[in-house]
Design brief:
Elements: H1 37-59, H2 64-100, H3 103-121
Helix pairs in contact: 1-2, 2-3
Length: 122
């Protein structure tokens, strides 16, 4: 269950995110990961399997340090996905706003990404 991805901090205090509807991007436009959805979904499916494995470890009374090691691996995998999404957002959404000439839209996109980074760093 090990992984070589980065780690994501605890999101205990993060506000709940409403479920996305297909094609629902609100006023934000297309997602920055458009065209890269398959690798993200594949990686998230692997992470889902890792989490199920941690669940089994606890059910089977696995030694606590071994469980913590696997939780760390899951956390790192999630952070890797998050960093990829940050990168995609900057290279797609922020870049598009910057080249549009719309200063207000650029400021909005910059505020969005900084808010996301701050949440990830908690």
């Amino acid at each position: 269950m090990s992984t070589d991805d980065g780690d994501l901090g605890a999101a205990d205090s993060a506000p709940p995110v409403p479920p996305a509807q297909p094609g629902d991007h609100g006023t934000h436009g297309d997602p920055g990961y458009q065209g890269k959805k398959s690798p993200y979904l594949r990686r998230l499916k692997l992470i889902e399997g890792q989490v199920r494995g941690v669940h089994r470890m606890v059910e089977d009374d696995t030694y606590c340090i071994d469980v913590l090691t696997q939780i760390s691996a899951v956390t790192k995998a999630l952070e890797s996905v998050a960093l990829g999404l940050v990168d995609d957002h900057i290279h797609h959404c922020v870049h598009d706003a910057a080249t549009s000439g719309d200063r207000e839209e650029l400021d909005r996109k910059m505020d969005e990404i900084m808010g996301a980074v701050k949440r990830l760093m908690k």
